[in-house]
Amino acid sequence: MPKPILTIKNLSKKYGGNVIFQDLSLTVNEGDTIVIIGPSGTGKSTLLRCLNLLTKPDGGQIWLDDQEITAKGTDEDHVRQHIGMVFQNFLLFNHLTALENVKLGLVRVKHMPEKEAETKALEELARVGLADRAGHYPGQLSGGQQQRVGIARALAMDPRVMLFDEPTSALDPELIGEVLEVMRKLALEGMTMVVVTHEMGFAREVADRIIFMEKGSIVEEGSPDALFYHPKFERTREFLWKITELYGKKEAQA
Amino acid sequence: MNFGQFISYIASGTVYTVGVTLVALPSGLLIGTILALLYVYGGKTAARLMNLYSTIFRGVPPIVLLFILFFAVSKGINLSAFWAGSFSLGIVSSAYQMEIVRGALLSVSGDQLMAARAIGLSRLQAIRYVVLPQAIRLAIPPWSNEAAIIIKDSSLVYALGVPEILRRAQLIGASSQKYLLAYLSAAVIYFLLVFATSHLLSLLEKRLAIPSNP
Amino acid sequence: MEWLQLLQRFFSDFVRGAGVTLELTAVGLTLGFVLGLVLALAKIYAPRWLSAIATAYIEVFRGTPLLVQLFLIYYGLPSLGITLSQTLSAYLALGLNSAAYQAEYLRGAIQAIGPSQMMAGRSIGLSRWQTIRFIILPQALRLALPSWSNEPISLLKTTAVVFLIAVQDLMAKAKRAATITYNPIASYLAVAAVYLLMVFALNALLKWLERKTKIPGFDIDVKRV
Fold this sequence. Notes:
- The complex is a heterotrimer of chains A (254), B (214) and C (225).
- Chain A has 254 residues and is of the alpha/beta class.
- In chain A, 39% of the residues lie in helices and 25% in strands.
- Chain A has 9 helices and 10 strands.
- Chain A has helices spanning 44-51, 76-80, 98-108, 114-127, 143-155, 173-188, 200-206, 224-229, 234-253, and strands at 4-15, 18-29, 33-37, 59-64, 67-68, 83-86, 161-165, 192-196, 209-214, 217-222.
- In chain A, a hairpin with a 2-residue loop joins strand 4 (59-64) and strand 5 (67-68).
- The longest helix of chain A has 20 residues, at 234-253.
- Chain A is globular.
- Chain B has 214 residues and is mostly helical.
- Chain B has a single domain (14-164), classed as MetI-like (MetI-like fold, Orthogonal Bundle).
- In chain B, helix 7 (123-153) packs antiparallel against helix 9 (179-208).
- Chain B is elongated.
- Chain C has helices at 2-9, 11-45, 48-63, 66-76, 86-123, 128-148, 150-158, 170-181, 184-213.
- Chain C has one domain: MetI-like (MetI-like fold, Orthogonal Bundle).
- In chain C, helix 2 runs antiparallel to helix 3 (48-63), helix 2 (11-45) packs parallel to helix 5 (86-123) and helix 2 runs antiparallel to helix 8 (170-181).
- By secondary structure, chain C is mainly alpha-helical.
- Chain C is built from 9 helices and no strands.
- Chains in contact: A-B, B-C.
């Protein structure tokens, strides 16, 4: 029986007068890799930021395992220890080395002793292939390397679920591969992931389910094969083939 | 009185000038930083109050504030002119330093705060371990400017009777009638102090710079 | 509020003092602008030796207290045969001092506009000086306005020290009031309020000037300190 890790019910969010999304419902099961696709400005990033409470939803509920994290009185900082997030602009702490970036959460949030934290941080960096860059500062790393450190930083907290907000959109084309590779490995290892991306090749290969969102609502949801070959809606088909033309061909050449 | 004695009399005021600066600058920094944190992170009412503080203390000439604070402080506590003058200068400086720290805090992108919260750091922890360390580096150049200003403004406390450089120049200039020499000497000493301080802080900036490959 | 009563009592005195303060600011600012512009242009366009002199001037006048400069002029110059009245000494000191700061504001703006516009001007046959005069300066002066606006306000506050050589400005009136009433705190508080008022008014004037002289579509945001 698939066990739900994230349950989202009737979630809504407005900014000023604009409705970003309304009545959104979604279930993410353990080990799932969910990929959310759709045109820009559709509310995908906002949705993701609601999941770890960085943005407060205006209505609806979110459950992490059995705990309703949208309930009043929830310790948000505590919740965020269990949900990892990777940002489009990496957002590494500029004044800290790669190792210190990964260590910070372990020492200050999980209160791990220094030695233990250092060992674990090095392990996570090794996991993303950057053990040899541990002493480098973000300003000394390439975009792809910075993003991988970002992933290591999130993984170090041993989260139940990892959220990826367009992780490769800010990268130069030749650096995208190294990040997608790390994400692919993670998915195969069984990490529960929700990924917002335009990388169709990744979606087709790795996703268990693809969700197509447009104008704040879920248009269609299903397995990669279902969406790509037997989409139920015309809009889905249009969007997928348009994107595949932009991104898919590049992957086919690679 | 020979030339050497003349110059050294004025130069001996340097101790007081440096003393005033070393009291005013850090106290201004301490108060300024606390107020800046309140301004940026303390909510709407706090921000309005801080804005008012900034407007008043930066809108009135330093010497006026110096006199007001000096007389007010002397009324309450029995402080020497040196301490009263130095702390008063520190309070004046705190408004300018608050703006410097505030500018630096705001320059550290709000995204850094967001990333810090995302790994479970509390707001306080995020400010302390992620925002402040980066803000300090951004604040050094304008702060170096403020340090130079304080060294120069320390000359104002001569009016309170503190025997610093300018006062000594005035005294010996009057008694020897060699005003030109006296004030020129004072000018040279001040210049050297400002120059040395700016250089030192420039070195500090380079030392603290976060390594990057351009 | 004692200071309010004091303000009423010495009102006309303070008004006269404020007038002198504004006069000092205006003269100092104008002198400072003319000299500052010369210094800025010298630093950017003049031959090495001349631009070095300009740099030295700026470093010296920004690296020493105004009070020392003021005393040098008023007390020191007579031994060189130049005796100036208190007011003239104040005008000169404020002007020379302000020039050093204005030079930096102007230099920054000219260098921001300079290179590309210089190329454009020369390319249609204008001489160096003509390009500076008709193309670069008009743009640079407008660009400099937001950050330069710090100077009039700073100068207004700086004039307060000239009462120490007995110029009858607002501060001098405050000192007089303090001597008469034996209430220094209230006297200086009253005067502080007047200074604040003047700063507000000046600020509003400068903002208006900024709006009036804006070049449509040319929006470089230089932050007001």
